Amino acid sequence: MQTPPLPNPAIAEFYRFALLLTGSIRTAEQVMADTLADVAAQLGQVRNEKGRQAWFVQHIRERCLRNNEAAPPAAPRLVRTDSAAGERPRVLRIEAFLLAQRFQTLPEPERSALALFYLDIFSVAEIAELLKMSLETLAETLGAARALLAQSLQPAAE
C-alpha cells in the first residue's frame, strides 16, 4: 500500500504549531518526529486532504499537551541580566523562540485556538470543530488568548 503524501501545508507549518504549543525547540522536534513516525501506519486511513491535516494537528496537539504536563516550561526572560552594575537592564528584542515561549504559557484551550488561528491552516469553523467548541466559545477563547498574550509581552512594572 502506498503511503499518502504528507498533508499540506508544509510540515514547517505543523512544526511551528508544535513550537507555539510547547515553547521548546527540542520538544517540538521530538513531537514532530513521533507524529511523523505514526504517519505511515495511520494517515492512510484518512481519505481527504483536510482530514489528514486535522489528524496531524490533533496528534501534534495531544503530544504537546502531554509533554507540557510532564515538564512545565520555565518562564522566558525579556530583560538582559548581564547589564553593568548600576546600569538599567536593557530589554531584548523578542525573538521567535521567545515569543513561542510566551505563547506556550497561555492556558489551554486558548493556546491551541490562537496557534491554529494564526497559522491559517484551517477556517474558523474547522478550528472550532477540531477543538470541540462552538463558534461563540471559540470567539471568546481567541479574544481571551490575545489579551493574555499581549499582557504577557508587556514589560514588568519596575
> Largest sheet, described in full?
none
Assign a percent range to the helix content: 55-70%
Elements, N to C (H/E):
HHHHHHH
**CATH third-tier fold name:** Butyryl-CoA Dehydrogenase, subunit A, domain 3
User: What is the domain tally?
Assistant: 1
**What is the CATH domain class?**
Mainly Alpha
How many β-strand stretches?
0
Write out key terms for the chains shown.
single chain; 158 residues; mainly alpha; Butyryl-CoA Dehydrogenase, subunit A, domain 3; 7 helices; globular
Describe what this molecule looks like in 3D.
It is a single chain. With 158 residues, the protein is mainly alpha-helical. The chain has one domain (11-74, 97-152): Up-down Bundle (Butyryl-CoA Dehydrogenase, subunit A, domain 3), CATH 1.20.140.160. The protein contains seven helices and no strands. The protein is globular, with a radius of gyration of 18 Å. Residues 74-80 have low confidence and may be disordered.
Question: What's the gist of this structure?
Answer:
The chain has helices spanning 11-22, 25-42, 49-70, 96-104, 110-119, 124-130, 135-152. 61% of the residues lie in helices and 0% in strands. It has a single domain (11-74, 97-152), classed as Up-down Bundle (Butyryl-CoA Dehydrogenase, subunit A, domain 3), CATH 1.20.140.
